[in-house]
Amino acid sequence: MFKEIFVSLPTLTLNDMKNSQFGEVPLLRLAVCLMAGIVMGDSIGGGIWLWWLMAVAVVMTIVLWRYALLQSVAIAGCFVLLGWLLTVRQEASLRVQWPEGEVVYEAVVFSEPVEKPKTMAVDIMLVKSGQKIKGYLYKDARSRGLKIGDGLRIQSRINANSDWRRGTFDYRRYLETHGFTGSSFVSSWKWRKARVSLKGLSRLERTRLFFLKQRSLLLQRFVVEGQDNGPYAVLAAMALGDKSALTKELKDVYAVTGASHVLALSGLHLGIIYALLSLLVVGRRWQMVSQVLIVLCIWAFVFLVGMSTSVIRSATMLTVYALLSLGHRDKMTINTLAFTAIVMLIASPLSLYDVGFLMSFMAVFAILVLMPLMMGVFPMTFLLSHQAVRWVWSMVAVSCAAQIGVAPLIAYYFGRFSTYFLLTNFIVIPAATLILWLSPVVLVFPSLAYLLLYIVGLLNAILTKMAALPWASIEGLHPTKLQTAMMYVIIAACYLLVKRLLPMLTCSRASEGYR
After folding, report:
1. What string of DSSP letters covers 174-223?
2. Under DSSP, is residue 95 helix (H, G, I), strand (E, B) or coil?
3. Of 505 and 117, the one with more pLDDT
4. CB under 8 Å, gap of 24 or more: what pairs does 246-252 form?
5. Distances in whole angstroms, Cα of residue 13 to Cα of each of 143, 314, 318, 409
6. DSSP state, 159?
7. Spatial CA neighbour of 317 closest among 298, 300, 304
């Protein structure tokens, strides 16, 4: 998951990486406590007694202010209980008692329609209650023509979230982590377009809908008549976060080669946007104003691309990064990552069970922890004097560190390991950077779209050939939860061993050089 390091691309240096090692990381401990509380809340549930425990923990935190150790334990207990309470609250909000029979309701389309074998799948939101449901409309010309922002008047039954499972995939959990409270299968004659009032939606949802409608308009600028749909599908996913046009075959090509991360907006994309906007800074005198404007632009882009978990994580870290840069503080640290996790989990505790959330944070965590060790293989003076070697080795170090961080999760959830991930990153990262730099140009001058689609088509062709190579990926892994946890234990043990041995090797190398 090479993309994750690009959340700090504009100013990541060797000094930054030295400061990213484990040191004073109180927020990491609090994040772990919050996660423990979320797991307990999901497993055990709760009642009014939880509020009493929370009150006691807060009082103990205040009373024990003279005793640092005991107060730290009380604070940890507060975060455990906070995660517990928030999880119980969110799960209660997702348990909706839908009517037994068919009902008439008004809704608004919140996603691009995705074609299924017999239906068109579309995310819709009920305008009166604000509940999100999965809509499956009978496939015909009308349902294919739906667009984001269309109002619907539907008569059908709304079903509670299904408990369907396949392997490690829990469909109910997937729906809950993304805020869906039910699903509805709608016949062709039981729905029609209608003008609906959005006053029942929150201001946040109305703002989000506005930006999604603007994205639909921008996507039209990438369309070239007569072109294959594959390049457009990848371009729409990489530039504006719309994956509705991606086919299963195209997803498999990117998954087998280990390039799926470029299809999901995250640190790579926001890092490039941050770098472009930073070029507009006119001087240190206007630094505070410029950073505020950059952050506002970053969050506008987050709304524009649909507010996925990984892009929110990257935007939150960039916001912290921008604020800390004003005070000349260490910006990319484990504390920054932990703070981002705390904010996101407080806002939505069930995000902890989202695959994208887990992989995004584990990739960045592994980069912050492992990359300094890998960069220490070469002397600092050598890297500073050989910029080409430094660039290549940095690419290798970031790719390997991120892959180590997410490999157990990929094996657990998807049952595969991509063997050519390092070679893939040397191809897709420069290509993705070029594509993202050209995308704003095409949005301004749509006539150049054919050139951008040609580049994306060339990337698709290269990855298709790589996916066909022998042993492109190892399939059928599927470790258990215990085996996955043990993989991380082994990785941690190897990290501690290398961290202990590396200074000895460095001293030995220095003494040999002295002789």
Report:
1. HHHHTTEEEEEEE-GGGEEE-----TTS-HHHHHHHHHHHHHHHHHGGG-
2. coil
3. 117
4. 250/460, 252/467
5. 51, 19, 16, 28
6. B
7. 298
pLDDT in tens, 156-186: 999 988 888 777 778 888 888 888 999 999 9
Chain-centroid distance, C-alpha 272: 16
Rounded Cα gap, residues 186 and 139, in angstroms = 10
Question: What is the spatial distance between Cα 444 and Cα 88, in angstroms, rounded to a whole number?
Answer: 47
Q: What tokens were used for 51? A: 């509020």
Angle at 170 between CA 166 and CA 171, to 5 degrees: 95
Nearest CA among 189, 178, 135, 137 for reference residue 158 = 135
Give me the amino acid identity at 344: M
Q: Give the 3-state DSSP-derived string for 19-42, with helices as H, strands as E and coil as C.
A: CCCCCCCHHHHHHHHHHHHHHHHH
Contact 128, 66 (CB under 8 A): no
How are beta strands 180-186 and 169-170 bridged, if at all? unpaired
pLDDT band for position 10 (50/70/90)? very low
Q: pLDDT over 70 for what percent of the chain?
A: 90
- Kindly state the tokens that stand for 348: 């939505």
Return all residues near 73 (Cβ < 8 A) that are at least 6 apart. none
Task: Enter the DSSP assignment of 332.
Answer: S
Phi and psi for 364 in degrees, rounded to 5? -70, -40
β-pair partners for 169: 166
Question: How many Cα atoms sit within 13 Å of 98 on the Cβ side?
Answer: 21
Q: pTM to 2 decimals? A: 0.85
Collect all residues with Cβ–Cβ distance below 8 Å to 434 and sequence separation of at least 6: 455
> Distance between alpha carbon 194 and the CA centroid of its chain, in Å?
34
Average pLDDT value for the chain: 85
Q: Per mean pLDDT, which range of 20-29, 264-273, 317-326 is the poorest?
A: 20-29
The 10 Å Cβ neighbour count of residue 27 is: 18
pLDDT, residue 478, reads 85
Instruction: Answer whether 389's CB lies under 8 Å from 378's CB.
Output: yes
pLDDT in tens, 378-410: 777 887 888 888 888 888 998 899 999 999 999
Residue pair 316/360 in contact (Cβ under 8 Å)? The answer is no
Q: Cα separations (Å) of 66 from 74, 231, 369?
A: 13, 63, 34
3-class SS at 227?
Answer: coil
- Number of helices followed by number of strands (H, E) in the chain: 19, 11
pLDDT at 207: 92
Identity at 156, one-letter amino acid code: S
